[in-house]
Design brief:
Layout (H helix, E strand, L loop, with lengths): L3 H9 L7 E6 L5 H8 L2 E8 L2 H10 L4 E4 L9 H7 L9 E4 L22 H16 L3 E7 L8 H13 L2 E9 L10 E9 L21 H5 L6 E2 L6 H8 L5 E2 L53 H7 L12 H10 L3 H19 L6 H6 L1
Parallel strand pairs: 1-2, 1-4, 2-3, 4-5, 8-9
Antiparallel strand pairs: 5-7, 6-7
Helix pairs in contact: 2-11, 5-6
Length: 368
């Protein structure tokens, strides 16, 4: 078998790092990874197909090895080979990732029945199967948009879960809303969490986190910020940082007269392209297709990239790389890190419970 050469050496490995190593698929800007890192996990190997995403990931997660790769056509053994090329031996315990979701998004008005992104969850399942055979993984996490649960996608969603099950995992499904986790944004997403069916055969239920009960507003997240830099092709990251205080605190230059004539009022929606945020409410979902970036509560401009990052719950020192368009796409596609962190902590509880030695009964102890 292709993976047989990996199994025995891997079982003899002893990681030199005191970490909980995970592999990241479809990593994007690293929102899911950031949350898992905050909960004690360590991404050691990551994959994405976008140059700006890879550069962003490497900038913020320098200890991980990021590879630019289209995972839709990855061959069996490819990721095992990449793990073998790392400068230190690592035995990953989990896989995390959220394939590009536009094919299942209900806001996508340009759906294509042949969209190759619709097949990416199956690529995820195939990768997961190979890694589990070689490493006897503990868990995986799969994230996607709520549209995946719509009746029009019911057949595909059922097939994805079946493939994940065949990869060797017991599957649990949950829905999490970022606004329940201290994130100043309403953002509902579906999560599949799988535990190794052999290792965790007695696990019949997994309790998804409920949130911390702290509801944050737009004001809480971005009310302290000064004005961003307006887009200019000659701007450098250093200039943006010097003038605005953060390399991502820049926005599209307002062009419509609506930004100047008082037409845009706080909290009002004036068509899909002009959704004005309210200071004392959470933001609508940060998902800016076709540059439909939400309007700042002032009504004078659209949000800056940095403001959108803070509405997603990114750490203040996080940096997105690439062009303005790249950054808008990256922040739109991300998993809110506080949501990922809460889920990761709950998964870690299951792992610790499994690793905890079982107490012998008093009768059994005295019998010896």
């Amino acid at each position: 078998m292709l993976i047989s050469k990996y199994v025995q050496p891997i079982r003899r490995w002893r990681s030199r790092l005191n970490v909980l190593p995970v592999i990241s698929l479809f990593s994007g800007s690293g929102g899911l990874d950031t949350g898992f890192a905050q909960a004690g996990f360590t991404p050691v190997l990551a994959f994405d197909n976008e140059p700006a995403a890879c550069l962003t990931f490497k900038t913020n997660h320098p200890t991980a090895h990021i590879i630019r790769k289209d995972l839709s056509d990855v061959q069996p053994g490819y990721i095992l080979d990449r793990l073998g090329e790392l400068p230190y031996p690592v035995r990953p315990i989990g896989v995390i990732g959220g394939p590009p979701c536009q094919a299942f998004s209900m806001s996508n008005v340009f759906k294509n029945s042949d969209d190759p992104r619709a097949k990416l969850p199956l690529s995820y399942a195939n990768i997961l199967r190979d890694l589990n055979r070689a490493y006897e993984l503990d868990f995986f996490v799969f994230e996607n948009v709520m549209g995946l649960k719509h009746p029009m996608h019911a057949k595909e969603f059922a097939a994805f879960k079946q493939f994940f099950g065949k990869a060797g995992f017991t599957i649990f499904e949950g829905e999490l809303d970022a606004c329940n986790f201290g994130v100043a944004q309403v953002r509902k997403r579906v999560f599949l969490v799988g535990f190794n069916a052999e290792k965790y055969g007695t696990l019949t239920d997994f309790e998804f986190p409920n949130g911390n009960g702290r509801r944050c507003s737009v004001r809480d997240a971005i009310g302290h910020l000064g004005e961003p830099v307006r887009f200019d092709r000659n701007l450098t990251p250093e200039e943006i940082s010097r003038r605005a205080g953060h390399v991502n605190h820049w926005c599209m230059a307002p062009r419509s007269k609506k930004f100047d004539n008082g037409f845009l009022k706080e909290g009002e929606v004036k068509g899909r392209a002009f959704r004005v945020l309210a200071w004392d409410e959470p933001s609508w979902t940060v998902a800016y297709g076709h540059r439909e970036v939400h309007v700042h509560p002032s009504g004078k401009r659209r949000l800056s990239v940095y403001e959108a990052m803070l509405l997603q719950g990114y750490p203040p020192d996080y940096r997105l790389m690439g062009t303005l368009s790249d950054q808008i796409r990256l922040v739109s596609d991300a998993v809110a890190p506080p949501v990922a962190a809460a889920l990761a902590r709950r998964i870690n509880e299951v792992l610790r419970a499994k690793a905890r030695p079982k107490r012998r009964s008093r009768t059994a102890a005295t019998a010896r």
